[in-house]
């Protein structure tokens, strides 16, 4: 487990506000050197604490009005790697988790409309060999989404 100190936490908080923020702006805000910010961010990336700085896309703004969470039951759990590799080929699937309980995998997917969602489920996902069944819950909007706070 990586131990984060106060400087690491404050740098991450600044990046949470705006991932494009210049290192010099972070340094000024936190009253530390630009070099320290640079070194800390590189270390956090090298340690895997920060896994990337990328845009967060508002899916609704680009025409994806439907979202669903789908539990996937496999015929054999040993098929999970192959099934996951096939799920990765479907761009509308944005997240995939191993879970306990009734399902082997749990995915988040987005679609433009109900017909698009139907095609994703019945023509793409259900046709992946090894999937026994799916169970979907339609998402009606995200109340909030965030990283863990310190």
Structural class: alpha+beta
CATH topology of the largest domain: Alpha-Beta Plaits
Helix content: 25-40%
What is the H/E order?
Answer: HHHEHEEHE
- What's the main sheet like? 4 strands, antiparallel
As laid out across the biggest beta sheet, the strand order is: 2-3-1-4
Tell me the total number of β-strands. Answer: 4
Reading off the top of the CATH hierarchy, the class of the largest domain is best stated as: Alpha Beta
State mean pLDDT (0 to 100 scale). 94
CATH-assigned homologous superfamily of the largest domain:
Lrp/AsnC effector binding domain/regulation of amino acid metabolism (RAM) domain
Termini gap: 15 Å
What is the total domain count? 2
Radius of gyration: 20 Å
Number of helices: 5
Broad shape: elongated
Q: Which blocks of ≥5 consecutive residues have pLDDT under 50? A: none
Architecture per CATH nomenclature, i.e. the level-2 architecture of the largest domain: 2-Layer Sandwich
Strand content: 15-25%
Report what the structure shows:
The chain is an alpha+beta fold. It folds into 2 domains: 42 residues, Winged helix-like DNA-binding domain superfamily/Winged helix DNA-binding domain (Arc Repressor Mutant, subunit A); 81 residues, Alpha-Beta Plaits, CATH 3.30.70.920. Helices cover 35% and strands 21% of the residues. It contains 5 helices and 4 strands, in the order αααβαββαβ. It has a 4-stranded antiparallel sheet with strand order 2-3-1-4. Strand 2 and strand 3 form a beta hairpin. The longest helix has 13 residues. The mean pLDDT is 94. It comes from Flavobacterium succinicans. InterPro entries: AsnC-type_HTH_dom, Dimeric_a/b-barrel, Tscrpt_reg_AsnC-like, Tscrpt_reg_AsnC/Lrp_C, WH-like_DNA-bd_sf, WH_DNA-bd_sf. One of its GO terms (cellular component) is cytosol.
């Amino acid at each position: 487990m990586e131990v984060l100190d106060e400087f690491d936490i404050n740098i991450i908080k600044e990046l949470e506000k705006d991932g494009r923020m210049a290192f010099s702006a972070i340094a000024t805000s936190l009253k530390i050197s630009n070099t320290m910010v640079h070194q800390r961010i590189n270390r956090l990336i090298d340690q895997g604490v920060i896994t990337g700085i990328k845009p967060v896309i508002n899916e609704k703004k680009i025409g994806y009005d439907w979202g669903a969470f789908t539990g996937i039951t496999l015929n054999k759990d040993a098929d999970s790697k192959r099934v996951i590799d096939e799920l990765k080929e479907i761009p509308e699937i944005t997240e995939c988790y191993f879970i306990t309980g009734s399902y082997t995998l749990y995915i988040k997917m987005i679609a433009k409309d109900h017909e698009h969602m139907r095609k994703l489920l019945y023509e793409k996902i259900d046709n992946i060999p090894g999937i026994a069944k799916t169970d979907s819950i339609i998402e009606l909007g995200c109340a909030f989404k965030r990283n863990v706070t310190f």
